[in-house]
Design a protein that fits this description.
Elements (H helix, E strand, L loop, with lengths): L1 E3 L3 H4 L10 H10 L9 E3 L6 H4 L5 H9 L7 E4 L2 E3 L3 H20 L5 E4 L21 H11 L6 E5 L6 H7 L5 E8 L17 E6 L4 H20 L3 E6 L16 H18 L4 E5 L5 H16 L1
Parallel strand pairs: 1-2, 1-5, 5-10, 6-7, 6-9, 7-8, 9-10
Antiparallel strand pairs: 3-4
Length: 305
């Protein structure tokens, strides 16, 4: 298994008191420094190119965002999403991590990869960043797998507590991309209702606040996993958010640690069935440091199994 990460992910600073803070990535990397992860091959990702990002985002948006990165202080692109001097580098390396992970996994260098990166990506739309996200990392990875490697059937599974609106909107009219999401609903960003089906390729599993482990697992067993196995993807991407945990301050689904190992095991089974085990996962949300570290530990342990 491969681990992609870059120091700029820590240097990206949205400002004092912001929940998407540098300590998030620090806690993840401390957890992955434990002895059980010593066999993880660690790689430094390149910057994604403008062309790679522009497969998903309007080129004018990409260039304007990078031009707006401040030399000092902060620039806000929406009420929740702020750039500091290292934010542009972090965003390019986060997108570059998933591109490099796709290349490595499809070259047979590993079956699975995890991108421990900031900023997250799944809320970013074609022409705007939002919800702490600048570029949609997982969507960029999917498009790279299609355009550079010729994959025809690709799945994305998003278990962040917030619906991945940017990812859904990118692919909801693309029958060759399966998108599934479990998330709290109604909740930010307001999308993700069960009736949102795209062209039959979108499988949303909205959960009420307080649902807990049983309802989360039922959502996967009844909605997401049957669709995923039927789709038979050649590769699975994971938007791995850990903010559905009971300890998280921003949401109320109330998951426990074991839910993250359970869902990872189910995704490994799906990948084994049709994708030669290939999974590329990238970090999304998770704002309680203890829950985040525990969730990533279990997720990466499952990806290594």
């Amino acid at each position: 298994m491969l681990l992609f990460t870059h120091p700029s992910g820590i240097e990206h600073d949205p400002g004092r008191g912001h929940p998407e803070r540098p300590d998030r990535l620090k806690s993840v990397l401390r957890a992955l420094d434990e002895p059980e992860f010593k066999t993880l091959e660690r790689r430094t990702p390149p910057r994604a190119t403008i062309d790679q990002i522009a497969r998903v985002h309007d080129r004018r948006y990409v260039e304007a965002l990078l031009a707006a990165v401040p030399k000092e202080g902060y620039v806000s692109i929406d009420p929740d999403t702020t750039m500091s001097p290292e934010s542009g580098e972090a965003a390019l390396r986060a997108a570059g991590a998933i591109v490099a992970a796709v290349d490595a996994v499809l070259a047979g260098e590993a079956q699975t990869a995890f991108c421990a990166v900031r900023p997250p990506g799944h809320h970013a739309e074609a022409e705007r960043g939002m919800g702490f996200c600048f570029f949609n990392n997982v969507a960029i990875g999917v498009m790279h797998a299609r355009e550079a490697h010729g994959l025809k059937r690709i799945a994305i599974v998003d278990f962040d507590v917030h619906h991945g609106n940017g990812t859904q909107h990118t692919f909801e009219n693309e029958a060759g991309v399966f998108f599934a999401s479990s998330h709290q609903y109604p909740f930010y960003p307001g999308t993700g209702a069960a009736f949102e089906r795209g062209v039959g390729n979108v499988f949303n599993a909205p959960l009420a606040a307080g649902s807990g482990s049983t309802e989360f697992r039922h959502a996967f067993e009844r909605v997401i996993l049957p669709g995923l196995f039927d789709f038979r993807p050649e590769m699975i991407f994971v938007s791995a958010g850990f903010d559905a945990h009971a300890r998280d301050p921003l949401a109320q689904i109330e998951l426990g640690d074991s839910d993250y190992s359970w869902v990872t095991d189910r995704l490994r089974e799906a990948a084994a069935a049709s994708a030669d085990g290939r999974i590329v996962s990238t970090l999304e949300g998770g704002y309680d440091l203890q829950a985040l570290a525990a969730g990533v530990t279990l997720h990466v342990r499952g990806l290594m199994a």
